[in-house]
Amino acid sequence: MASPRLFRSLVVLSLIAAPLTVATSTAEATPLRSGGVVSFGCATSGKFRCLGKAIRSPKGSGPLVVSTPVGYGPAELQAAYHLGGLHANGRTVAIVDAQDAPTAEADLARFRAARGLSPCTTANGCFKKVNQNGAASPLPAPDYGWAMEISLDLDAVSATCPDCHILLVEANSPDTDPLMTAVDTAAAAPGVVAISNSYGGAEDSTILAADAHLNHPGIAVTASSGDSGYGVSWPASSPYVTAVGGTTLKKATTTTRGWTETAWKGSGSGCSTLEAKPSWQHDTACAKRTVADVSAVADPATGLGVYDTYNSCGSSSWCDALLSLGLAQGADGWVQVGGTSLSSPVIASVYALAGNSVTSGSYPYAHTGGLNDVTSGSNGSCGGTYLCTAGTGYDGPTGLGTPNATSAF
């Protein structure tokens, strides 16, 4: 009988000998729907975790990594949300994440080139990466999972708002103080009109004091509602943010819009136990803050194709096999991803395209005519109420709906 080590080697060799091929084009790629999903594996030593998920390889427990673009790209996101031809005119979307992604700028360049977008680099002033205090160095310790999260966020902004400038602010760790310091740094940076936060954690007694760091009138602060279905996380529950839920987005030849959306089963929603209800929120089943406010695509099965190469094993076919098996960390090419880690930077980018001065999450509530109402789907069990079941008008999983151009933002 072969030893376990020999068996694993034979399995890896068989994967290398029979690689997965995916037929795609750079203009429009086909979403992958095989293999289930896998979380990014962001460092969990801190309070918060990133909220991204990737399509899992059918050959193991790792992500499905391929050599050509997959999933939706700029053409699909802009068509689905009626954003084509709009411009940000140099406005900046800030991305706040924990840890460092050493290959962030190079991977962003590869994504944008493959999708036909103009370069966004440090050299041309479009892209900037700083630590939580706003300095170019020292940067935090790198992390494979957070690097994939960062690639998702950067590519989501690029796909939604190709001419947005991007500021990446990397917190020292996924804890409250470093992340909130990073948010304050982002808010103080010239040109920033929106800040996306694609992470979350349980509500506790510390969040009320930390809310002040999310209160930046004139700047849209978005936060992912969660990827575990019905239930609330912070900072999405803060009254100073736009809490962003998730949908499943599919092409549809039978609708005028050309797309259909349902509530994604992983989208977080519900009633905060601590945060006061904002004056602009009027639903009746929650005495305190209700999540979410609005939503966008988040289902990994209809997700964005992202380019990421930061991993623990290199760039060989052997490394790719190890990644597929879950025996190495990170990615080495194109990965189809989702989670409300996708919907938050999408909405932040729509705010940037709109160019309005906003206060907390109030603006969409006064401009509901600029939203696509999502009326079906559920993210869990709540007695059939709107808190976990999509329906006409406001509901927990999808909020007021998804962007129909920019008038609601």
Largest sheet: 8 strands, mixed
Radius of gyration: 20 Å
Note poorly predicted spans.
Answer: 1-27
Mean of all residue-level pLDDT scores: 92
Helix fraction bin: 10-25%
Number of DSSP strand runs? 19
Strand content: 15-25%
Please state the overall shape, judged from the principal axes of the Cα atoms.
Answer: globular
Distance between the termini: 64 Å
Kindly name the structural category: alpha/beta
Give the H and E element order: HEEEEHEHEHEHEEHEEEEEEEHEHEE
Helical segment count = 8
Give an overview in words.
The protein has eight helices and 19 strands. It has helices at residues 4-17, 74-80, 104-114, 144-160, 176-188, 207-210, 317-325, 340-354, and strands at residues 37-39, 49-50, 53-55, 65-66, 92-98, 127-131, 165-171, 192-197, 199-200, 220-224, 242-251, 259-263, 270-276, 288-291, 294-297, 304-308, 333-338, 371-372, 402-403. The strands form five sheets. Strands 5, 6, 7, 8, 10, 11, 12 and 15 form an eight-stranded mixed β-sheet that branches. Strands 1, 3, 4, 16 and 17 form a five-stranded antiparallel β-sheet that branches. Strands 2-9 form a two-stranded antiparallel ribbon. The longest helix has 17 residues, at 144-160. The radius of gyration is 20 Å and the shape is globular. The termini are far apart. Mean pLDDT is 92; it is low at 1-27.
Task: Please render the helix and strand layout as text.
Layout: H1 4-17, E1 37-39, E2 49-50, E3 53-55, E4 65-66, H2 74-80, E5 92-98, H3 104-114, E6 127-131, H4 144-160, E7 165-171, H5 176-188, E8 192-197, E9 199-200, H6 207-210, E10 220-224, E11 242-251, E12 259-263, E13 270-276, E14 288-291, E15 294-297, E16 304-308, H7 317-325, E17 333-338, H8 340-354, E18 371-372, E19 402-403
Parallel strand pairs: 5-7, 5-8, 6-7, 8-10, 10-11, 11-15
Antiparallel strand pairs: 1-3, 2-9, 3-17, 4-17, 11-12, 13-14, 16-17, 18-19
Helix pairs in contact: 1-7, 2-4, 3-4, 4-8
